[in-house]
Amino acid sequence: MTQHPLKPRRSALYMPGSNARALEKAKSLDVDCVIFDLEDAVTPDQKPAARQAIIDALTGGGYGDRELIIRSNGLDTPYIDEDLKAVVAARPHAVLLPKVNTPGDLQRLAHKLAVLNAPTDLAIWAMMETPQAILNAPAIAACGRDPEVRLSCLVLGTNDIAKETRAALNPGRAVMLPWLMTCVAAARAGGIDILDGVFNAFQDGEGFAAECAQGAEMGMDGKTLIHPKQIEACHAAFSPSEEEVAWARRINDLFDLPENADKGAIQVDGKMVERLHADMGLRVIAIADAIAARA
Ligand code: COA
Ligand code: MG
C-alpha cells in the first residue's frame, strides 16, 4: 500500500516542454499525470525556451486535478541547475530525475531543491533506466521512506535500459522481465508507485494493448505514454474492471457477516478466500472510487 493519499496514476503522458501545442492540449486530455519533458525530447538549444514555456503553462493553470511532473535533465548535465530553478518557479507536483544511479543521486537532488527553497511538498520521481539503477533498485526505492527525499514514484525507462544493457526490447519483453519485476518489488518495498516504460510504436494499437495488459499483470500502477492515442487502452488496462470491483465488495461483505467474524478463510464459489484477499479488494475499491471521483 502506498503511503501517500491514493491517487490513480494509470497514465502519465510525456510531452516535450518545447511543444506549445501539446502543453495546451494536455489540459483537455483524460490523463492522470502529465510529464513535461526538458530532457531527451528537447534539443539543447531549445531548453531555455522549453523551461519558460513550462513555467508559463503551469502558472497559467487549467490542468484540473491532473498530476503535473517536470522531467529535468540529469544531475551531471550542464542543464540541471537552470532546470531546477524552473521547477521551483513552475510549482509542479513532482520533479522526475532521469539517469538515477544511486540513492545518493536522489539525496543530491533533494539537497539542491532545499537550497532553492523548493516547497516541502514537492515530490521526487526517479527514472529507472540505467544498469546501475536496476542493480541498486532496493536502495533507490527505499528513499520512499526517507522524509528528506520524498521519493514517490519510479518510472521505467525501457528504451534507455535497452540502449545501456544491449538487451532487446521486443514484444513481450521476455529478456527484460527480471529487471522490470525487480523494480516492481523494490517499489513495493519502498511503499511507492511504479510506472511502466513507453511503447514506441504508437500506431500499433494491438501491440500497445498487449503491453498495457502485461504491465498491469506485473503489478505496475500505470504506464508512461507518448501519444494521446494511447490513453484509452491504457486506462482500460489499469482501471479495475466492474467484475473486479464487484468481487472485492462481495468478499468484503462476506467477511463482515457475523458468522464469519472469527474466520480467517472462507469458501466462495469453490475457491478459498482469505482476509488478505479482502484487503487486496479494499485497494481495488479505493482505486475505483478515486477514479470515479476524478471523472
Ligand atoms: N502530448 C500532447 N499532445 C500530443 C502528444 C503528446 N505527447 N503527441 C501528439 N500530440 C497531439 C499533437 O499535437 C496533435 O494535436 P492536434 O491534432 O490537435 O494538433 C495530435 O496529438 C496528433 O499528433 P500526431 O500528428 O499523431 O503526432 P506528431 O507527429 O505530431 O507527434 C511524436 C509524434 C512522437 C513526435 C509526439 O507524439 C511526441 O512528441 N511524443 C512525446 C515525445 C516525448 O515526450 N518523449 C520523451 C519521453 S519518451
Ligand atoms: Mg531516458
TrEMBL record:
Mg(2+) binds at residues 129, 160. This is CoA ester lyase. One of its GO terms (biological process) is oxaloacetate metabolic process. Belongs to the HpcH/HpaI aldolase family. It holds the Pfam family HpcH_HpaI. It comes from Roseibium limicola. Keywords: Lyase, Magnesium, Metal-binding. The keyword ATP-binding does not apply. The keyword Magnesium applies. One of its GO terms (molecular function) is lyase activity. Substrate binds at residues 71, 129. Its cofactor is Mg(2+). Residues 10-228 form the HpcH/HpaI aldolase/citrate lyase domain. InterPro entries: Aldolase/citrate-lyase_domain (IPR005000), Citrate_lyase_beta/mcl1/mcl2 (IPR011206), Pyrv/PenolPyrv_kinase-like_dom (IPR015813), Pyrv_kinase-like_dom_sf (IPR040442).
